[in-house]
Amino acid sequence: MPEESxxxxxxxxxxxxxxxxxxxxxxxxxxIATVGTATESEVGEAVRSARIAFDEGPWRHQSLEERAxxxxxxxxxxxxxxxxxxHLVTSEMGAPISSxxxxxxxxxxxxxxxxxxxxxxxxxxxxxxxxxxxxxKEPVGVVGAIAPWNGPFGMAVSKIVTxxxxxxxxxxxxxxxxxxxxxxxxxxxxxxxxxxGVVNVVTGGASTGQALVASRGIxxxxxxxxxxxxxxxxxxxxxxxxxxxxxxxGKSAAIVLDDADLDAVRSGLAMGCFFNSGQVCAxxxxxxxxxxxxxxxxxxxxxxAAQWRIGDPFDPETTLGPLVSHKQRAQVEAYIASGKAAxxxxxxxxxxxxxxxxxxxxxxxxxxxxxxxxxxxxxxxFGPVAVVIPYEDEANAVDIANDSDYGxxxxxxxxxxxxAKHIALQIRTGTFSVNNFVYNxxxxxxxxxxxxxxRDTGREGFESFFELKTVNLAAxxxxxxxx
Length: 483
Ligand code: NAD
What we know:
Layout: E1 6-8, E2 11-13, E3 20-24, E4 31-36, H1 40-56, H2 64-78, H3 82-93, H4 97-117, E5 124-129, E6 131-139, E7 142-146, H5 152-165, E8 169-173, H6 182-191, E9 199-201, H7 206-214, E10 220-224, H8 227-240, E11 243-247, E12 253-256, H9 262-274, E13 286-290, H10 294-306, H11 326-341, E14 345-348, E15 365-368, H12 375-378, E16 385-391, H13 394-402, E17 406-407, E18 410-413, H14 417-426, E19 433-434, E20 448-449, E21 452-453, H15 458-463, E22 466-472
Parallel strand pairs: 7-8, 7-10, 8-9, 10-11, 12-13, 12-18, 13-16, 15-16, 18-19
Antiparallel strand pairs: 1-2, 3-4, 5-6, 6-22, 11-21, 14-15, 17-20
Helix pairs in contact: 1-7, 2-4, 2-6, 3-4, 4-5, 9-10
The structure holds nicotinamide-adenine-dinucleotide (NAD).
Nicotinamide-adenine-dinucleotide binds near residues 175, 232, 408 and 456.
């Protein structure tokens, strides 16, 4: 019997669909749970629940401050359980306990950050535009939110808490690899006073996601995942004229200039290329190095790869865990084979680490002598694989960085901050980092080109869950608005 993984109208229940998902630990390869795949009718029930909560319930009529208080109370309730949630996330997707504790702790802080936005957000503004006008921000409606597996608890916070703070209702679908941790968030929100039906959860894979996106009761889709799935979702939403936010893949370039502080390059690229076993959308997976110091930069990236301690993710000393699934490792290994076949040179890694009998591990891997036209330079590998590409001069580096289908993130390493700014302004990405690798979910995050549409986090992410309404006022009506 699958676990109770559907949350509809304020109650947990199992799915009665025929298909089940075995949740397998990436480090032990043992099954840790079985959850159902929500059927189209179960997805329909979840959407109806969210629709009723939005159309008839009290949540969206409560003040922003009242909604923020519920979120703060939920954060208080989660605080004592951070270690427990981190343990579950490590079991689900294999990231080391050392990092999941920090990540889950940050996700709870993010709830407080979002709640704080309430005090500085105005939902009504009066403007004299020839006609006295009120500009209102109203919640966009019912949100279908779909998440990947690579940062599960933080992703659930971002995908659920942000829209409900705006007054929306949500049907959330976690990735099939990581369907369990969202329970903690949902239970805390309910206990904190969230009305039934405002948050709903359906588990399943692509078919459940497709049913959610296609549902007529959904006003906006908030999707984070692969570019391939994002294109399909975008076209359905285009046809239905649903609002859509797509946070997709990346192949981000780190430009190392000839004056870079190589210690900063080493620490920035250790995180940028290999953190979370490279399963990071913003990973700096293309390193662009000037020919004048190419050998030195390759050696630094090799040192960045050597910093990681790979092994059992529950060992507090471990810093690098396995990949999320057998399928993911097969994909990463196919890319490594493609790099070798194309003539790129393996500097370090490329294999499964010795001495780890179980688990989907891959060594941190560095390819040198890579051409930007090679498959390993163009496609997102989503594993611990960095490629080092030589460039001639600064203009050539900018051209190579921008010569990508993606535009999620980018970085420059230099001691000349004037040059850093010049390069930052020329790179077409949604986020850019100077002398570091930062993912800050208090800032707007998202991509250009095939990396997506819209911004997911920060104030701008929150604001994206409002629709604007313009009210042309009759004389003497001004005092009714502007709260
Ligand atoms: P994926 O696209 O396979 O799946 C993501 C989610 O979408 C899962 O819940 C999946 O079940 C669902 N899904 C798959 N196909 C669907 C469809 N046609 N319709 C509706 N739902 C569908 O991606 P993944 O392998 O889980 O995650 C890795 C990808 O996510 C990488 O490409 C990575 O770059 C991207 N990602 C992007 C960001 C970002 O903010 N830009 C953050 C994290 C991950």
